[in-house]
Predict the 3D structure of the following.
Amino acid sequence: METVFVDGSAGEGGGQILRTSLALACITGKSLHIENIRAARRNPGLAKQHLSCVRAVCQICAGQCRGAALRSSVLDFHPAPPRGGVQPAPVQSGDFHFDIGSAGSASLVIQTVIPALFLADKPSAVTVTGGTHNPMAPPFDFLSETFLPAIVAAGFRGNCKLIKHGFYPAGGGKITFDIQPWQKSTDRIIDLCELGKEPQIHARIYTAKLPPHIAQRQRKLLLQSGLNIQNVEHIEVTDSDGPGNCAMIRLCSGERTTVFTAFGMQGKPSQEVVSEVVNLAENFLTSGAAIDRFLADQLLIYMAMAKAGSFTTNELSSHLQTNMEVIKKFLPVNFSVEQQKQAYTISCLPRAN
């Protein structure tokens, strides 16, 4: 079977290269050899979260790997051999449980395995224990309110549930994700280029094991921002293993919700937390784009699976460009990029032989 060689130091040089490569190796049945894993990060190589991704894909496609150890920078992954010598062995549906063993992002482990599980012939359930609200990763609210409604347009159906909150650095949270087999159809594609109606703007503050004045201060700052925020919801988390805080802005336009998040941490003033999330929302709103840069990165693989789709986004990030290049190594697609004022149109098309 073909082996795809990936340089983990290319482009943004982070964990997304590994996660995308693992998912596509499962989908295509191709073997993966990846070197320089997370070379651009402060602590390069495989962390616990990334090891969980490796073990998870091995389980769902009966694969084997070499190099799956903490801080390893080289990995070989081999999905189960094809049956009949033509197609890759089918992905195994089932009820899967993965424990990261740290506050690593449960969302990112889920996003590694679900593209392949959408190709199984029966529904699957995935439960991941780890961090549910982490800096530098999509929080549960993003999965539930932004990501899932976006991919359903192309026939990818699932639902997720937050069982227990887990903030960095304590972790200990739990997410479940139910996946239905892909309802593939040529007339069902991701087409998110047009703006919806003027969004209503809502805010949400999470605090866990923290004094009340933090949420009060952040609420006041949010309402004083230049955004027309309709209401501020405060969720005081009681099931978290450790302290945590984040402020969210939710742009709600019809069936589309865009979630932006900034995380509080020791030594980071509430002013900085609120300014961070407000700036994310303002930059997106002024761009005229339909999809924020965080969702854009996650949609690429689903457009590639369907060999069609397009969206507009407010930033052509290194993350996005790197993900395109990794996907093209596995699947016969091309991506086009067109800039118009402050927005970029990203389109996916089949690649000519």
